[in-house]
Amino acid sequence: MAESLEALGEPGMVERLLHRVGESLGSHKVVLFCPLPGSDDPLAAYQWGMPDDFLARYANLIQGSDAWSEALVRQQGEALARGGSLSQQLVSTPALRRGAFYADYLKPLGIDSMVNSIVEASPEVGMHVLAMYNDLGQSEFTPEQFSRLRAVTPWVRSLMRAQRRLQQARRHSSALERTLDQLPLGLMHANQRGEVRYLNEHARAWLGVEDECRILLRNATGWQARQPLQLAQIHPGLTPLLTASLSTRSPVSARLQTQQDPAPGTLVALAAPLRNGPGPAAEPLAQFILVPEAPPHAGATVSVCSALYGLTPAEAALLPLLLQGMTPREMADNRHVKMPTVRSQLASLYAKTGTRGQAELAQRVLRVAALVTA
């Protein structure tokens, strides 16, 4: 089970799973029928040991009617109740061999009989069936083989559900990546070893990174096999930021000189630890937010934000400092005021703009800047 879970998402994972099931239960032909309601492929299936066109043959055959098809319809309730069927439970083997299903489908595929187990049956996922076929000349499957197939079915069900969850997570990840690429700032994730886990479009362009680094899913398939990109390979100033941020568990900022075109000459990099996932083994990650040190039209952006959100002059004066990646202490020193004053002004800014921290507020201000410069 653990070995199979490690292979989730890899090409051919399900086929290898079917191979193992077939070998352990004495069959060279195994099919997992797994159509999803509303999908474009109502006969979706994985297979091991069957010819590539077996689904097309099956689709043509079920358009007609014979003893096998009628038995499937007539005894569907009984099959659901017992969790599957031996072929001889649906129709006697002599009757099966006289029908079109045998002549046009089973025999050309080198099959005499079959046994199947219902993996899942629900309106959400439809009917998923795990079927094994014997070779011509072999005896029928036995009740003992049916029992053994039923015994491995929960294992197959667990793996298929995990596979669906991974596919759903990947769809959500792709949607999130598209959203992050639209932000008017650079965004980067790195783990405590300095291995880059993600960069959005601005971060790649400004830092001159060609590696895609789109690994939003932790433990995503193939991550361990690839050569990770190191922060030190991108810019020498990033690794000290990572170390300081993770050791103090607080945001740390620095200015980075860049040579990439069309990147700005100086970037302000703010590194902040990300909240760990569940479990004691969750990998510590840090998030880097990159913005130009002197965003274009900064004055106009501050004026527009002041009008949009009803900011006081003192609150508005913090916005340029925020975009430079300053911490509250640095803002207080720059403004020659006390820390409680800055904290109170930041809290008011968060409330007025509907944001929850410096990173989110910076993103909000940069969106306004993008509109101002459009």
Automatic annotation (TrEMBL):
Q: What is this protein called?
A: Helix-turn-helix transcriptional regulator
SUPFAM superfamilies in UniProt: C-terminal effector domain of the bipartite response regulators (SSF46894)
Query: What's the source species for this entry?
Result: Acidovorax facilis
Domain (HTH luxR-type) spans 308-365
Its domain of life reads Bacteria
